[in-house]
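Practice problem: Methyltransferase domain-containing protein
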Amino acid sequence: MTAFDRGLLGHRCWLELATGERVDLPVDRWTAIPCDGDDVLLDACDGPTLDVGCGPGRLTAALSERGVASLGVDISATAVRLTHARGAAALHRDVFDRLPDEGRWRHALLADGNVGIGGDPLRLLTRMAELIGDGGTVLVELDPPGRGIRQDRVRLRPGSDDTGGAWFTWAWVGVEAIAGLAARTAFRVAWETRRDHRWFACLEKA
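Answer key — structure tokens:
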């Protein structure tokens, strides 16, 4: 079982950066029912929604319970299994692979910092533009102001031992940097907001 799988099951884990820094991952949030910050994302979805990097499926399942058609996508088989256990639909697939209904999704979620998937936010948002229909939106959770755009090599570390996983590239985007990224793709920033300690933006496809 990987460190990420353990995190999906609620065990403490963190990202170790190549610099030696450590970033704790919000595993309690992943496995809990949606909280107030999550409502910012959920309330913005009124049509078919793709939850990219769905993890154990808290948002995918919450949308389904609201009567919104939703599909989770994750590279972790454990994540997909846990999403199914919540009664929601999910695919074990990379977001850059072929996905159902490309170009016809109304919304996509990049929650919990998933704008960092692949380590290249510009490439990821370009891919989102291929998946979303005209007038659709991408709901993005971001880092606080002042963080800019950062890319680094990271690996997942579990809290139970010293064994780390393989190194991969991840990215972080501060809220002040999202407009510049959006302008280089097919999106514009429709709104930005803060809920407690979390920051969000809605990107609308032209």
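Discussion: Helices lie at 3-8, 27-31, 36-42, 58-65, 77-85, 121-131, 178-183. Students who identified this feature from the tokens alone can consider the problem solved.
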